[in-house]
What does this fold into?
Amino acid sequence: MVVAGVLLTLQVFSATVSDLEYEVNDDNTLTIVRYLGEDTELIIPNEIDNKKVTVIGDGTFYRNFKIRSINIPFGVVSIGNFVFGYCENLEEVNLPETITSIGEYAFFICTNLKYVKIPSGVTKIENGTFDYCINLREVILPPSIQEIKMNSFRECKSLESINIPEGVTYIADYAFADCESLKTVTLPSTVKNIDEFAFYYCTNLTAVDLPEGLKAIGFAAFTSCRELKEITIPASVTDIAHLAFNNCDNLLKISILSPNTNIERDVFRKCDMAIIYAHENSAGAIYAKTNKIPLIVFK
It folds into this structure.
């Protein structure tokens, strides 16, 4: 294991210490901008030349195929976009509690990463943060998370469950698309929108409770969730977009609690075993009759 040491090649605003290139920030702290070494295990120092390391910059370790383990020091508050992109052999990363920002596609195609605990000050999972982390099995999201953005966990093919904390108001496009091992999702009471393709092709998803307060379910949001057996659409839902539950071919029971929910064309296409439960003369009942789906009217 190598701890980056002291080998100075000083410039006016930037320098190299051991194999770490850095820049001096306006507040006299440091941003690590590039790693030039070939170590498989790396500990980044919390200080260099009596200056605190506070940022790991965009693309610092991009396409580094050697690193397997990295320890980010206490005091770092931000890691940048694509910072570990294509680090295909990265298995372990320690994120200190001082981190408040993780950049877009920060762990894109880290195909050997298996576990991540997000620090408690982080409020967003940015676009593509864990996209195509195909061996990621467990992610711990703190209560501070308020946004889960586009592609954030797309193609995390080994992820089996996710607990989304209270405060999150939407699940963005493709956030969990192609998470084919995902079996259970816990949604918070605060979520209002599930956007396009959010859970597309989660072929082993067996259960999801949609909370009262949810307003809209986007285009193809649950398409090809083929192990879903039952779904209840809360009374708060005003719109279900085209193909939202397309090809959920083991779906047996669909309960639509509001008489006025707007149900677009082919929402339940290829749900050939399903029975719709809805109010008499409601939008759900009309959809069932129009599409020749068996209907049971609420009493």
Summary: Residues 1-12 have pLDDT under 50 and may be disordered. The two ends are 68 Å apart (CA to CA). The helical segments are 283-290.
